[in-house]
Design a protein that fits this description.
153 residues; mainly alpha
C-alpha cells in the first residue's frame, strides 16, 4: 500500500515539475497590460449623457402624472370613485415605472456592450494581452483611456 502511495506521489511530482519547466520555457515575453478608466469614459460619453437626460425627462413626466392623480383624487368627493381613481393611477404609474426601468436597463446594456467591444478591438489592435479597469490596479499597466475615449461616442 505504501509503495502505491509513494508511486502516485512521485508521478504527481514529476507531472508538476514537467509542467512548470514547460511554462518557464514558453513564457519568454512579458504580457502587455493596459488599464482603462471606465468612470472617465462613462462620464464623457455622449450616449450616457443623453440616456441620463432622457431618464430625467421621463421621471418628470411620471411626477406630473402623480401630481395630476393627487389633484384629481383630492377633488373627488365620492369614496368609491376615490378608490377607483387611486387604483387606476397606481396601475398607470407602476406600468410607467416598469417601462422606464426596462428601457433604461436595455440602453445601458447596449452602451456597456459597445464600450466593451471598443476596448477589446482597440486593445487587440495595439497588441495588449490584458486590459484591466483602472480602479482595481495599484501599480503598472499602460493607461489607454484617452485612446479608447476617442472611439466612443
Amino acid at each position: 500500500m505504501k509503495k502505491k502511495v509513494s508511486f502516485l506521489f512521485l508521478c504527481l511530482m514529476s507531472f508538476a515539475l514537467g509542467y512548470s519547466i514547460n511554462n518557464i520555457a514558453v513564457s519568454d515575453t512579458a504580457p502587455k497590460i493596459a488599464i482603462v478608466d471606465l468612470q472617465k469614459i462613462l462620464t464623457n460619453s455622449t450616449q450616457v449623457k443623453q440616456l441620463k437626460a432622457d431618464q430625467e425627462k421621463k421621471i418628470n413626466e411620471m411626477q406630473s402624472t402623480i401630481q395630476k392623480a393627487q389633484q384629481e383624487i383630492a377633488n373627488e368627493k365620492d369614496p368609491k370613485k376615490v378608490s377607483e381613481l387611486e387604483e387606476k393611477y397606481r396601475n398607470q404609474i407602476n406600468l410607467q415605472k416598469v417601462a422606464l426601468d426596462e428601457e433604461y436597463n436595455k440602453k445601458l446594456s447596449q452602451i456597456d456592450t459597445e464600450i466593451r467591444t471598443t476596448v477589446t478591438e482597440k486593445a487587440k489592435s495595439l497588441n495588449y494581452n490584458l486590459v484591466l479597469p483602472k480602479n482595481v490596479v495599484f501599480y503598472g499597466g499602460e493607461d489607454i483611456t484617452d485612446v479608447i475615449a476617442k472611439d466612443i461616442k
